[in-house]
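Lecture notes, continued. The same structure-token format from the folding unit now serves as the input rather than the output. Read the line below as a description of shape only.
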């Protein structure tokens, strides 16, 4: 399970280190993830960086009976949940970046132009305005700014361009993208908002988000102030494991909400959206399905109950994908959901360690999975921290896998970015890799200041990557066969864990000192 700052979200670190000592002879100090304080432990830039060249590994045979929906060439009459043709494309009736990684396939990163010589356009967050104290493990720590994944939504509504995001204030904020001023009052919640918000893609003025206070909410923004219309408590389903946080990002498709929780369940809600007599948006949600994201085999393999779901759910075709902190990658058939047929799990694969990065599906139906290394079980060590899976081969799905670790903990917290024939993948240690999608080989690599949890963004052949020195780096990646030339860098005041939102000449991102910043030319 993912950590943040000096405060940790889980209590498996010490056990993981003991297991690491048993399974790995990895020299050097353990790299610290960033977290609840305002500082992060620096990573030694001179530490050895091994360019792994592991051969593809076969998987331990997973439990699977049906092949998940691949991503074939779509037809104009596609009738399923998410057309595979939308891989890499914008979706929705609002013009904007509406959810983490832009669409339900988690493969749309924004709209250009990308600034060529960026400077600060505006800042939001007076001293300590985006800070609060949160209790983890019985201790209260100060948290500031925005965290993982924390990508703002940017969209046009009511003749304005809006920015909506959650923070450690803790609150949901509604800003004017041109000025950074509030369009609506903040909506305060009971604890930190870590994840990214989702704006309704079908034109309803609704935002969907979760918090560490135990609730996932639906909030309207079509009135003079935001209104909470509904909430789902993490304890409203059973059985549950781990805790009641909601860090994962929802997908909204055809009046249905799909979201995983740190109660370790996957939830599907029929929203029943509409408008009242005064023209205000309404919802009448029904929880129509939930299921544990674990099974007895996983708990047996792990020896612990850290199986929370922190990924953004991914949907391609009629298949719902997610993974959990126990490393269980799974796909569920949702084809019959509209007709009252319950989803069924059709693919199961164990990575061997915490898997919080969102699963990315490409236009050929392959799944790319980033994995952390914390427990250091032999299976996770053997498979590595980046895996390409072919769900059409459920008994032998591993196409290739890569060992990207330098030490323990390490691995991949950020969600990889697809760009033509490469995959951009940063590691906790700060190594940014450009991976050949076909072979799994590294085309080029560069060292940044870790921990790097911010996900890479590619718009108009410009690659953006933020790091924990607060630097946003930009490269020209028009030619994917060469090491790309650096275009520019800009330094923000503190570590950036959140993923930048890029839209129409702006880059908007928060950092851990306590601000949201807009950059433009």
């Amino acid at each position: 399970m993912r950590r943040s700052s000096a405060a940790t979200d889980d209590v498996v670190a010490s056990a993981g280190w003991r297991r690491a000592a048993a399974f790995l002879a990895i020299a050097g100090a353990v790299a610290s993830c960033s977290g609840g304080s305002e500082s992060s432990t620096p990573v030694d830039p001179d530490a050895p960086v091994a360019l792994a060249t592991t051969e593809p590994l076969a998987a331990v045979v997973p439990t699977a009976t049906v092949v998940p929906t691949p991503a074939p060439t779509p037809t104009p009459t596609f009738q399923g949940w998410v057309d595979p043709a939308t891989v890499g494309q914008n979706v929705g009736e609002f013009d904007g970046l509406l959810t983490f990684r832009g669409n339900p396939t988690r493969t749309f990163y924004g709209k250009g132009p990308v600034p060529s010589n960026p400077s600060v356009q505006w800042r939001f967050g007076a001293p300590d305005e985006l800070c609060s104290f949160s209790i983890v493990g019985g201790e209260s720590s100060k948290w500031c700014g925005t965290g993982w994944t924390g990508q703002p939504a940017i969209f046009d509504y009511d003749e304005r361009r809006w920015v909506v995001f959650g923070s450690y204030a803790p609150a949901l904020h509604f800003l004017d993208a041109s000025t950074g001023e509030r369009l609506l009052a903040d909506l305060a919640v009971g604890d930190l908002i870590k994840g990214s918000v989702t704006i309704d893609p079908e034109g309803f003025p609704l935002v969907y988000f979760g918090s560490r206070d135990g609730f996932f909410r639906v909030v309207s923004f079509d009135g003079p102030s935001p209104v909470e219309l509904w909430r789902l408590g993490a304890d409203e389903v059973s059985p549950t494991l781990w805790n009641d946080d909601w860090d994962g990002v929802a997908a909204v498709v055809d009046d249905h909400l799909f979201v995983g929780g740190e109660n370790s369940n996957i939830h599907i809600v029929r929203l029943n959206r509409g408008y009242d007599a005064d023209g205000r948006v309404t919802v009448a949600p029904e929880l129509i399905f939930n299921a544990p994201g674990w099974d007895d085999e996983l708990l047996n393999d792990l020896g612990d109950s850290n199986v929370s779901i922190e990924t953004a759910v991914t949907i391609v075709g009629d298949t719902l994908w997610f993974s959990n902190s126990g490393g269980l990658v799974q796909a569920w058939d949702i084809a019959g959901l509209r007709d009252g047929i319950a989803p069924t799990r059709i693919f199961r694969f164990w990575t061997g360690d915490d898997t919080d990065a969102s699963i990315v599906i490409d236009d050929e139906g392959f799944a790319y999975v980033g994995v952390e290394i914390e427990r250091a079980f032999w299976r996770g060590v053997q498979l590595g921290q980046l895996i390409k899976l072919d769900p059409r081969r459920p008994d032998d799905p591993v196409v290739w896998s890569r060992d990207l670790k330098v030490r323990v903990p390490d691995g991949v917290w950020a969600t990889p970015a697809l760009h033509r024939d490469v995959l951009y993948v940063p590691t906790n240690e700060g190594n940014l890799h450009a991976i050949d999608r076909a072979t799994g080989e590294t085309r080029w690599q560069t060292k940044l200041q870790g921990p790097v949890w911010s996900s890479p963004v590619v718009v108009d052949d410009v690659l953006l990557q933020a790091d924990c020195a607060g630097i946003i780096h930009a490269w020209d990646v028009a030619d994917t066969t060469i090491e790309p030339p650096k275009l520019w860098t800009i330094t923000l005041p503190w570590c950036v864990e959140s993923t930048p939102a890029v839209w129409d000449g702006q880059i908007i991102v928060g950092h851990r000192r306590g601000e949201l910043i807009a950059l433009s030319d």
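Point for the exam: The radius of gyration is 21 Å.
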